[in-house]
Amino acid sequence: MKRSFILKNPIAFVFMILSLCCILIVLITTLRLPELTVGDKAVASNQISVIRKVPKDHKLGKFGEMMIKMLPKDLAFTVFIPSEKAFERELSLRVNESLTTEKLDDTYAVISRILGFSAVPRTMYSTSVDYGNEISYDAVSGFTLNISKDKDGMLIVNRVRSEMVDVKKKDVLVHIMDGVIMDAAFEQSVKPDDSED
Q: Where in the chain is the domain with CATH 2.30.180.10?
């Protein structure tokens, strides 16, 4: 009796077909979703990624800590911090130099500018970037960051490769870079003058 009612009533028949289609779509979508990472282990079999354990006492260096302190508290940020060697190599900033008040002000100005180029107002773990794909985000200064992943799981941001990824410092996620992320105009302003002897 019920079957004949559904077959004779076109509204009931259409509703039954739509319900079955929706259930089928939900099942297919659920089965095809990429698997998530749980803890420190990658669950997805098709994802090429190396998860690295980072010591909790890992130090970012003096300049990296200065950058973190400049960020607002209790907000999620991802920061691509240059390594101490990169600060010295590309910006001529050395940790062991005695800093006068004037030099300290200049250092803060440079570091705050670098922070604007390298901080993204969201949390972005290295596992959220797929190998072979490139994603783009705007840094807090509006500078566009093009982010991809290398075969070994290291991030590459605007052609600068990371040395260490996914270092957590309170609410801030840090990726330590083997270079400084900056725009061309700022790079020219901090470049050493080659005409001096």
A: 62-190
Beta bridge partners of residue 161, listed in sequence order: 156
Q: How many CA atoms lie within 13 A of 119 on its CB side?
A: 21
What pTM was computed for the model?
Answer: 0.66
How many Å is the maximal CA-CA distance in the chain? 100
Q: Are 165 and 159 in contact (CB under 8 A)?
A: no
CATH number of 62-190: 2.30.180.10
Structure tokens belonging to residue 165: 């990824």
Residue 138: count of CB within 10 angstroms of its CB: 11
**Could you read off the pLDDT of 60-84 as tens digits, one per residue?**
788 888 888 888 887 889 999 999 8
Question: By the 8 A CB rule, do 124 and 137 touch?
Answer: yes
